[in-house]
Design a protein that fits this description.
single chain, 287 residues, alpha/beta, Spore Coat Polysaccharide Biosynthesis Protein SpsA, Chain A, nine-stranded mixed β-sheet, 12 helices
């Protein structure tokens, strides 16, 4: 069914310098096999990134350029459809893998092959590559389920859905998705910032489990200016989230998941973030 175990799909729309860091971090993996990288250029005006990727001349790396700009959700959907891996990773073009990333995913999936979602340990950097821990990431750390002294933990069902609805503590670009579990859901083309949580909740509602790991192997870049922070100021982010919460409030009610239904209705951290955005209109973060 699959050509490789881990298909790293990298939707790209500038800037080139950060893409180069992301691609080079993939090449620095301690595990040299079992992965492929595909860069999907969404018609970024500067075509030099494509020339650079091709110049690497690495058979594990493919570069593709869309004839016209598809937008975030549709380029993500294309990445998912093109994946030939048992697991699909939708890497951000500004994020950085640590050298142990593929090795840690291999360990987690080897121990727990039935998990549909694999969330490894993550650290956070800013635009300059410096380690940071802003409020949003301190909150994520506080609400993330504890591993109880273990190196990994499996979560599933209503408890997992409820936890994520109370506050989305996952880091979407770091996740390895079992491709067969996510293809049937895909991405909502009408969303820009809540599409990751929608996919998580859809897979969980369909019976998929998540394994979370303790070993940090991924660095997530948090920008002061981003799609999610700008939409937050304009209200678009919260409009998306409200629609998402209403959708899953109805879905989980029909499934009899009462705690998840209530969490979708209340969505405490989303409302708190909305309040914070209004109180501090110049302070924004990538979601």
């Amino acid at each position: 069914m699959s050509d490789t175990k881990f298909a790293i799909m990298l939707p790209y729309y500038g800037p080139k310098a950060l893409l180069q860091q992301a691609v080079l971090s993939v090449l620095r993996q301690q595990t040299a096999t079992g992965w492929t990288l595909t860069v999907l250029d969404d018609a970024y005006p500067d075509e030099s990134a494509g020339h650079w990727v091709k110049s690497l001349n690495d058979p594990r790396i493919t570069y593709m350029r869309n004839p016209e700009n598809l937008g975030l959700a549709l380029n993500f959907q294309k990445a998912l459809e093109l994946s030939t891996g048992t697991y699909t990773i939708l890497l951000g073009s500004d994020d950085v893998l640590l050298p142990n990333y593929i090795g840690e995913l291999d360990r987690l999936t080897g121990m727990l092959p039935d998990a549909a979602i694999v969330q490894p340990g993550v650290s956070v950097i800013d635009e300059t590559g410096q380690a940071v821990r802003p409020l949003v990431d301190r909150v994520k750390s506080a609400i993330r389920p504890r591993l109880r002294g273990r190196a990994e933990r499996v979560l599933s069902g209503e408890a997992l859905a409820t936890s994520l609805l109370r506050g989305d503590w996952a880091y979407f670009p770091s996740i390895a998705w079992k491709t067969v579990n996510v293809r049937s859901f895909g991405f909502d083309s009408g969303m820009e910032t809540a599409l990751d949580l929608r996919l998580l909740l859809s897979v969980i509602g369909d019976g998929g489990s998540m394994v979370i790991g303790d070993e940090v192997c991924f660095t997530y870049r948090r920008h002061k200016k981003s799609v999610s922070s700008e939409l937050a100021r304009e209200g678009g982010r919260f409009t998306e989230e409200e629609a998402l919460f209403r959708e899953f409030e109805r879905k989980f009610a029909a499934m009899g998941w009462r705690k998840a239904q209530r969490a979708a209705r209340c969505h405490i951290t989303s409302r708190a973030y909305r309040l914070l955005t209004h109180l501090q209109p110049k302070a924004g973060d990538r979601g």
